[in-house]
Amino acid sequence: MFIYIFIGIVIVQRLVELYIAKKNEQWMISQGAIEFGQRHYKVMVLIHTLFFISLLGEMIWNEGNLSSFWPFYLILFILTQVGRVWIITSLGKYWNTKIFVLPEMNVIVKGPYKYFKHPNYVLVTIELIVIPLLFDAFWTLFFFGCLNQLILAIRIPIEEKALKQITNYEEIFPTKKRWARS
Which of the ends of the chain has fewer CB neighbours closer than 10 A, N or C? Predict the structure, then answer.
């Protein structure tokens, strides 16, 4: 029973986040925001939807068994949710599941964004590891862990390019020249 309650809570949480994202999207567009990465967004949504279907299927296959390390994984999951709230509140109206950028905007560098560039993607990656581990869903972990890294390899460069083009992103996070000669 725990598995269905847990998955239900996570799905409701995601739906609430989509509602917040939609409201933020409307506000951003009204302020003149430009959307980037529309082509990969549908694929990303599909990956996350199929993740839950795969997880439920594998949990049923495993007869709903929890990992023997479930308390540890549950604590990690709760910590990611605290981080998720921190991220959403730090970005406020600028938080979204899509890539919207306001021209001439100053990049937000508060909350976890003070410490590194893409904390939301780090948390999503951790969630896509911890949730399957909680239920010993190793096939889901492997398959969707790989798909998530693939979609992030597409998404992050698009987001960074957009931010560099029309905000002060490069000023805040300067590109390091790795192979520069001295």
Answer: C
What pLDDT, on the 0 to 100 scale, is given for residue 1?
75
Contact assessment for residue 140 and residue 58, using Cβ atoms and an 8 Å cutoff? yes
- The reported pLDDT for the residue numbered 39 is 93
Q: Which of 107, 106, 110, 145 is nearest to 124 (CA)?
A: 145
Domain enclosing residue 135, as ranges:
2-172
Which pLDDT score is estimated for 68? 95
CA distance 47 to 125: 13
User: Which pLDDT score is estimated for 182?
Assistant: 45
CA distances for 84 relative to 14, 15, 66, 104, 168, angstroms: 11, 14, 24, 26, 24
For the chain, the maximum distance between any two Cα atoms, rounded to a whole number of angstroms, is 62
User: Low-confidence residues of the chain, pLDDT below 70?
Assistant: 176-182
52: tokens are: 């839950």
- The confidence score (pLDDT) of residue 168 equals 87
Domain-located, residue 96 = yes
Number of structural domains (the chain) is: 1
Q: How far apart are the first and last CA of the chain?
A: 62
Q: Is residue 102 part of a domain?
A: yes
The CATH number assigned to the domain holding 109 equals 1.20.120.1630
